[in-house]
């Protein structure tokens, strides 16, 4: 995993962590002792990025039990003590957490992938944005932070849905394929409350990384 001391074994047919995972992992901020919840965790890659930065308590939630069994094996190999729970986030109940992270499904429409692992990871119907934001509202502490990566054109939808749940975007990063391209990806940090200001980080050019 780029930027960490960790390595993950991943099943051939499963959704693999990608450049967006790395971007979000580098963007998020965590501190010693915080509990970090990764929604749709797969192998828990985002938890490892968090662990690289601080001594966190990591919890990953995913819908595929066989993927989580592999995630547990990876945790043993990497000598970390993460907890993995098989559940839809819509039904997940637990104590409030300090930080929530998510690399969510991006794609809408009816184009189906015959690989159920990939289809679930990519299509919004399995985790609609509203359901995700409602889960954040239910599970995030009052002083907590929520980090997400999305397609850049969904900034407006993200801010609108977050506003309905009482959250505001306080920090944002934009990634571009190259210096002359439109923004491809947005990284966002949300906190509770209606805030007017949002820090925009230095642009990320993917061809220069």
In words, what does this structure look like?
By secondary structure, the protein is of the alpha/beta class. The protein has a single domain (22-205), classed as Rossmann fold, CATH 3.40.50. The protein contains 6 helices and 9 strands, in the order H-E-H-E-H-E-E-H-H-E-H-E-E-E-E. Helix 1 (19-27) packs parallel to helix 2 (45-53). The longest helix has 14 residues, at 65-78. It is globular.
Describe the structure using short key phrases:
single chain; alpha/beta; 9-stranded mixed sheet; globular
Please specify the SSE layout and strand pairing.
Blueprint lengths: L18 H9 L7 E5 L5 H9 L3 E6 L2 H14 L4 E4 L10 E6 L13 H7 L6 H11 E12 L3 H10 L2 E10 L6 E10 L6 E2 L3 E2 L4
Parallel strand pairs: 1-2, 1-4, 2-3, 4-5, 6-8, 6-9
Antiparallel strand pairs: 5-7, 6-7
CATH topology: Rossmann fold
Provide a count of the helices.
6
Amount of beta strand: 25-35%
Structural class: alpha/beta
How many domain regions?
Answer: 1
GO molecular function: methyltransferase activity; nucleic acid binding
InterPro entries: DNA_methylase_N6_adenine_CS, Methyltranfer_dom, SAM-dependent_MTases_sf, tRNA_Adenine-N(6)_MTase
Protein name: Methyltransferase domain-containing protein
Organism: Bulleidia extructa W1219
